Amino acid sequence: MLDFKIELKSDYHIASGTGLGSWCDSTLLRDQAGSPYIPGSSLAGLLRQGARDLLEQTLLKKKYNYCGMETSVDNCKKGDKPCIMCYLFGSPKYPGRLGVSTAVPDMEQGVVSEHNWGKDSSYRYRSSVDVRTRRAREKHLFGREEGTAAQVFSFRVDCPDLVSASFVVAAARMVRGFGSGRRRGSGDCLLHAIKIEPSSNGISSENFEKDMLSLFNNSWVRGRVDFNAQMQVNNQGLETKNINLKTHNIDQNNSKNPWRARLVVHLEEPLLVSRRGETGASFESFEGIPGSTLAGALLARSFKNQSNGSDESTLIELIRQGKISIPFLTLAKLTDVRLNPALSAPLNLAGCKKVDSFSPNNGEHPPVNRLVNANNRCACGYQLEEPGGMLILQASPFHHQPVKRLETHIHINPLTGRVPEDSLYRYIVLTEDQWLIGDILCDSEETWSQFKTSAAIPDVNQDFELLIGKAWRKGYGRCRAAVAEEGAAKVLTDSWIGVDIKNRVGESPEKDQQLTMTLLTDTIIPDRWGRFLTSLDEISTLESELRKSSNCSVISIKEIGLSFSRSRPIDSFNTRSGLPRSRDIALMAGSTIQFVINFDDQDILSCLQQIEVNGIGLRRTEGFGRVAFNHPLSLIGNTYNFNRQKVPESLLSEKQTQKESFEWLEQYILSEYQESIGGFITDKTADNWTAFARILRSSDNLNAAEEKLGKVPAGVAGELEHRDKKHFFEDKDKGKKGIEKLQEIWDEINQWDKWENSKLTDKARERLMAQHLAALISSVAAAKRRDG
Q1: Cα(88)–Cα(173) distance, rounded to whole angstroms?
Q2: Are the C-beta atoms of residues 775 and 783 closer than 8 Å to each other?
Q3: Distance between CA atoms of 12 and 144, rounded to whole angstroms?
Q4: What was the pLDDT predicted at 436?
Q5: DSSP 699-718
Q6: 571 by DSSP, 3-state: which?
Q7: Are 157 and 100 within 8 A, CB to CB?
Q8: What is the tens place of the pLDDT at every residue in 632-662?
């Protein structure tokens, strides 16, 4: 793993594809927190171009075959083995071996947020000139946001071996610019390799880059690297293995003590787990991570860590035999270092059409459970509608929308340096810095121990890296995960339910028990003729599934009440064969049914708990078929004491702690000080305070902003000496009174008790306070101006 830093020599521009109205046509690409970044796909293209230029040098051009067609299906057609470019960077015929992360800025300057205008960028304007008249064309003024050259970015490159790493370091030294306008002076840069992990003999940390270039000179220039032989070494183990089950000591008997392990995942980079798109150039991510995708990521991790004792063949057999159920990971909301999962809204719930009933401030418009209330009207008289989307699991659930971002990508022909037609691609990704949670279910503790060893998963609360989804070699899909908790499935409460089954059903349920069953994930249930169910009111099929899941043959459904269900097709793709899999029809998550069920003389709680652990239907090892009885969301209005999962400390970096402080402070300032600030801002002084907000945004603290007030340029100071009129912010009857009030507010915020646990430096804390206070002043001034 190579670490690089980017040393900027001039301002740069990497477009986000969006503008800011009429005064900026192209903004800088930023992440969810507002910090600029350079996507891994752009860096991979830069390294590819640097390697191409390197191979065009006379000493290397004579030694190494380079097809020059690595972006075409006709690449390397002269031989069976790929050339060095196709081997390292990939092509339509060969998978690449380099993984390039996203480049992020150095955060030494403190928190960077969407309110941090003027700190890391500036705006540049240019016009288009008519070549005939040599005058600026009408309506051809263009503005764009450019990142400042003072920033330093860092990124990582995963290389297959040390010799290939030396080639990448040399290719990086060929890069001289990136981004838009690099032929006009923008984006000038140098890429420096700073370290490698793990460390290698003969490569010193003090002169790392020099030693790597010496290795490149000795291996590639003076010598000759047989990278085809090196490729065979790196490919060992990729071939399909004939697995002998007798060698893995897997217990074939069904266990009566299933084991649960809670997996918490944090997105370090944008995630793209693509659903089926409307067009071949459009890729939209799921609102979570499907079990099959997570299983593939764990298998890749197992293969990569073979030297540490992991064994992917054991992992494959555990999944094939159904001893492991890989969960669908759902999004979760982080509050006070604890997670609340976001689940698909139960279809039996409804809310007011006029006011969102699933919001913290729903007033007199509470949500309605249609299982017990057949009225199709809200208390206010308006009609009801299904909530849709995802709801946070808590006493008063509210909507949680996944944060997505639209990204556009282009393909550049290396021969012409231009973008061919029909080469625009669209990614709709889950943004970075989001949390996901799910439970891995095993048939026994011994199976879980085998699974941990084979997948190279460390002990509880220790983090590890996963690469998930598409484009993980180009700055997407890098996650950090940790097992937050583990224990017997009948003792450790399901993270998606949060309440013990005794509290939901009752410690002594009746023989004929009325229950509400909710599907937590999509569920695939075929009937006796192989047809997929599209509703939950087929008694015989549903009864059969419950019996098989609980191993209780006396279960019978006596009466079916209301049911709310929907279905959708499940499409997937077999990467190995290159063909789509057969389509399944699944009942959608959130489908709900109410029925009266008879267990005869069986232990009702034990049977229900067994069904919740095992699930129902097909493909349960991939996370399908999870159900819950009397789920807290379906029976909204009941007061439960939810078990919220605490995030492992190994996943809580300083950046996440800062982000949580950022969100909490925004709500705190808005609720506490909006009225106070509105007391000294009027419609006549709104423009003055808007100007002050701009100054405060670009300052490190309130005192620094006050020092900038009333400053007159040195060249015109003498011309203004005769003026007796006081500056607005120096007049006690005008702005000075407001400045004094802001100082009181600043001191109060600075004494906030949560700063002690925020891990922020004094400078970062003051910058954060200045940004939020400036935002509030701007919003209040705008409201006064509008109302006045």
Answers
A1: 17
A2: no
A3: 11
A4: 93
A5: SSSHHHHHHTTT---GGGTG
A6: coil
A7: yes
A8: 888 876 666 777 888 888 887 655 555 555 5
Residue 324's Cα: distance from chain center in Å? 25
pLDDT at site 636: 76
CA angle, 751 as apex, 748 and 753 as ends, to 5°?
A: 125
pLDDT bucket at 703, cuts 50 / 70 / 90: confident
One-letter amino acid for residue 436 of the chain? L
What is the SS3 assignment for 12? Answer: strand
Tens digit of pLDDT for each residue in 336-349?
Answer: 788 889 999 898 88
Query: Over the stretch 136-172, which tens digit does the pLDDT of each residue have?
Result: 888 888 888 888 887 889 999 988 888 888 999 999 9
Three-state SS for 632-686 is CCCCCCCCCCCCCEECCHHHCCHHHHHHHHHHHHHHHHHHHHHHHHHCCCCCCCH
Location of structure tokens 């889950």: 430
> Which of 90-94, 285-289, 421-425, 611-615 is least confident?
90-94
Cis? peptide before 387, omega within 30° of 0: no
10, two tokens: 């001039």
User: What's the number of CA atoms in the CB half-sphere (13 Å) around residue 31?
Assistant: 25
Count CB neighbours of 75 within 10 A. 19
Q: What is the mean pLDDT of residues 417-439?
A: 85
Give the Å distances, CA to CA, from 526 to 372, 536, 618. 30, 12, 8
Contact in structure between 499 and 630 (CB atoms under 8 Å): no
Return the closest-CA partner of residue 436 out of 602, 287, 260.
287
725/755 Cα distance (integer angstroms):
42
Residue 110, classed as helix, strand or coil, is: coil
**Token pair recorded at residue 119:** 């700190």
Residue from 647, 659, 663, 619 nearest 437 by CA: 647
Q: CA 343, CA 590: separation in Å to the nearest integer?
A: 8
What DSSP character marks residue 18? -
CA 37 – CA 629 distance, rounded (Å): 45
> What are the structure tokens assigned to 167, written together?
């080639």
In which element (H, E) is residue 221 found? none
Paired tokens of 13:
């521009």
Positive or negative torsion for Cα 376, 381, 384, 389: negative
Any idea which residue has 């899909």 for tokens? 477
Using the CB atoms, write b or e for 207-230: b if 16+ within 10 Å. ebbebbbebbeebbeeeebebeee
Rounded to whole angstroms, how far apart are CA atoms 493 and 518? 17
> Token match 């050339």: residue?
83
Q: Please, which residues bridge with residue 351 across strands?
A: 385
- Rounded Cα gap, residues 162 and 160, in angstroms: 7
Establish how many alpha carbons lie within 13 A of residue 269's alpha carbon, considering only the half-sphere containing its beta carbon.
29
pLDDT category at 759 given cuts 50, 70, 90 is low
Helices (H), 516-653: 539-550, 604-614
Helix then strand then coil, % of the chain, to nearest 5 = 30, 25, 45
Over residues 74-96, the pLDDT tens digits come to: 556 545 677 788 888 887 777 78
- At residue 671, the pLDDT reads 66
Rounded Cα distance, 288 and 332, in Å: 10
Q: Interhelix angle for 312-320 vs 291-304, to 10°?
A: 160
The encoded tokens of residue 513 equal 């028990």
- What gap in Å lies between CA 286 and CA 434, rounded to an integer? 13
User: Which residues lie below 8 Å from residue 656, measured CB to CB, with a gap of 6+?
Assistant: 266, 334, 433
Indicate the DSSP class of residue 620: G
Residue with tokens 């305070």: 689
Q: Is this prediction's pTM over 0.90?
A: no
pLDDT at 231 over 70: no
Q: How many helices (H) and strands (E) does the chain have?
A: 17, 31
The residue type found at 666 is E
Task: Round to whole Å and give the CA distance between 480 and 268.
Answer: 7
